[in-house]
Amino acid sequence: MAEPQLAVIVLAAGQGTRMRSRTPKVLHRIGGRSLLEHVLVTAESLAPDRTVVVVRHERDLVAGAVTDAAPRAVVVDQDDVPGTGRAVEMALAELAGFTGDVLVLSGDVPLLDAVTLGDLLAAHRRDGVAATLLSARPDDPTGYGRVVREGDGTVARVVEQKDASRDEAAIAEINAGVYVFQAGPLREHLALVGTANAQGERYLTDVVALLRASRLAVAAASAPDASAALGVNDRVQLSDAAAALNARTVRHWQREGVTVLDPATTWIDVTATLAPDVTVLPNTHILRATAIAEGATVGPDTSLVDCEVGADAVVTRTDATLAVIGAGATVGPFAYLRPGTDLGAQGKIGTFVETKNARIGEASKIPHLSYVGDAEVGVGANVGAGTIVANYDGERKHRTRVGDHVRTGAHNVFVAPVRIGDGAYTGAGTVVRKNVPPGALAVVPGSQRNVEGWVETHRPGSAAAQAAEKAAHGSQEEDG
Ligand code: UD1
Ligand code: CA
What we know:
CATH class of the largest domain: Alpha Beta
Number of helices: 10
Low-confidence stretches: none
Oligomer: single chain
Bound molecules: uridine-diphosphate-N-acetylglucosamine, calcium ion
CATH topology of the largest domain: Spore Coat Polysaccharide Biosynthesis Protein SpsA, Chain A
């Protein structure tokens, strides 16, 4: 027999008052995605026939996020009748005529994984029940609806924390806010849901007791990992969810062959990828679409946003965004790589160096105290300590080109636009305003002038004057 069709309804209309935020709750982010995006991505793993997302609070923002994450999803607006029951009712109106299974997900339950969800749906179909809800036994059940069971263990109803008696509040099994329903019975019984509760809302959870009153079976499947059921209502739960998700992500990469020294201070977005034998040192953030190749070492104290790190590269105490770091290259400690940095294989961006929109060729080095922006550096070049690229004339940015195997002296300024030819050298302290031909040595004219005796005349009696006098005396003795 063919499987029934599957429709997913995602509830995302609530205000999220307890977040105390300008941002709608479901758009708060953990692990590199909004709460809602996590839910939509997980829902997609079941390849549903229909997906409906219910919105109301900040509807345009939330609807935009839905379209970005799940273009095939249909957005439905909830009216001013509050409650999760009303939200599902409005989604069902969009699904008029649908007769399969309806999976209801909450936009604020982001850690639900595809396996738990798949198992829930399979159990529901196997048991042939009217509804199956996902339950869990978290360490602290406060705030969740509780699953009330009969003496024989069958599910009787769900009671909200605010409506619970003391005995009910003592129940450890909570409702995760994730359910599968047969469409027909759901539609029929939702219509019967009233508002006689502490919040005066139409609760979806009331459908459970109503189905039972019609002698229809309701099952509850317990999530093996209680974190999958974690609901985010405030910022404390937001950071709990972020930590739980991160722990899951770190464990995943450890099992794939990545060494993570300190999982608690290593943050990896779900969108990042790491190859085997990568080593991640403490206090490191690997964010967005960052990809780290085999054998690379990153950290400690490093943040990589949308970066590509080549095999065996070493990136230490670095902040980098939209940068490419070649194989075997070294970066840091204390480097700042801004967007458009592209460091070639075996290259080096060293200590207290900032780069932006700069292509640095294979085996080229910028070892110390430099700013290199809007520049191209050839292969095998060495940019001297303390070099600054003056790329901005106050109105426009200009490019600097440094050729292959160039050696520039310490404390140079390259005043863009300017070109330093292949194999050229520059002296220490050179302000390069004109192009340097290949193979030339550029130095600034004007030689050093020493004003003899200046200290004795202008700073008489100072420690410097005494030291100078002593040195002069000593050299006379040596001379004599
Ligand atoms: C809900 C459940 C509770 C469960 C918990 C799990 C109800 C009545 N209670 O409580 O049993 O333990 O989730 O996390 O369902 N929403 C709408 N429209 C509304 C109200 C809410 O779309 O009118 C959405 C919210 O945006 C949210 C989800 O539904 O994504 C849950 O709403 P919330 O107010 O957070 O319910 P809880 O009090 O957490
Ligand atoms: Ca909630």
